[in-house]
Specification:
Length: 301
């Protein structure tokens, strides 16, 4: 919660007259609505400012893409933001090679200074698989499941190096999708997101949470989630190189952990548009891509 401001007490007036007659006259003036012609009390003059005022931070777009971890901040009331891109992933398994292309998209709807609504998904997805026993290539396409959720921002960072900004993100995935990407179970995840600016040009953005997901065999399973992004900025906050990792344990029913590492850069074009490029690869597990390439754009309205 925001800190409460102290209450200020007004100064008590001191009587200039000690005689009882003066006290009676003053009391009569208060009861009767004041003496005609009496001068109003003057507020004390504000002390002159001796130093420059601290400028308010610029109102710049702050998307959740492209890093694995999402931020703790919301976009603000009566605002809409779209974050979308193009992602190209490669996987190898038992001698076959899969190439997957999709369009990850996040729609954010500003409700208040604390809440926002969110619709998110990989939308249209295309795969092409080649390998032994596959004549030519096997191609599939369809729409991935969508999630509906919210972000709640409940703590601000008061100053550089002080306590982190905090928020929670909840997503609910109804059974949806089409073709090979259809889901059969209601799934969901809940994360705690933090942003900690520990210098004017460096920040840490961790996420930790719990998910109920569905594996590629249609089986639901519980999993732990961890992601951490290290952001660097120029002084104007318009260029943002980053390095991050994401851990999911387990990656599937009775499976091992999955670990992915990626890096990239985001840069602002004006106050309301961000462009980004990133690349990464799986370090551990069967399900992460080896590697992936992505580019995207975010626009605030």
């Amino acid at each position: 919660m925001p800190e409460q401001k102290p209450l200020f007490r007004g100064r008590q007036a001191r009587a200039a007259c000690r005689q009882s007659f003066c006290r009676v006259v003053l009391l009569a003036a208060v009861i009767g609505g004041g003496c005609p012609g009496a001068a109003p009390a003057q507020a004390p003059a504000a002390p002159p400012q001796t130093g420059p005022q601290e400028a308010a931070p610029p109102d710049l777009i702050n998307p959740d893409r492209p890093g694995i971890a999402d931020g703790s901040q919301v976009i603000g009331p009566k605002r809409f933001q779209i974050e979308t891109g193009y992602q190209n992933e490669f996987r190898k398994d038992a001698g076959s090679t899969e190439r997957r292309i999709f369009v990850p998209t996040l729609l954010r709807f500003g409700i208040s200074s604390r809440w926002e609504g969110r619709i998110e998904g990989n939308t249209y997805t295309f795969t092409r698989t080649t390998g032994p026993g596959i004549p030519g290539a096997a191609e599939t396409d369809g729409f991935s499941p969508l999630s509906f959720g919210f972000k709640y921002h409940f703590q601000d960072q008061t100053a550089i190096g002080k306590r982190a900004s905090l928020g929670t993100i909840f997503r609910l995935f109804p059974a949806s999708g089409s073709g090979a990407f259809i889901s059969n179970h209601l799934t969901a995840d809940l994360r705690l997101a933090a942003d900690w600016d520990f210098t004017p040009t460096l920040s840490l953005n961790p996420n930790i949470g719990l998910g109920l997901y569905e594996d590629d065999q249609g089986r639901a399973f519980w999993t732990g989630l961890l992601a951490v992004t290290l952001n660097a900025y120029n002084r104007a906050k318009t260029i943002n190189p980053f390095l991050d990792f994401g851990l999911q344990a387990p990656e599937e029913t009775d499976g091992k952990s999955a670990l992915i590492l990626d890096a990239g850069v985001a840069f602002l074009v004006g106050r309301n548009v961000q462009l980004d490029l990133s690349a990464g690869t799986g370090i551990e597990g069967r399900t992460p891509p080896h590697p992936f390439l992505a580019g995207g754009v975010s626009v605030r309205f």
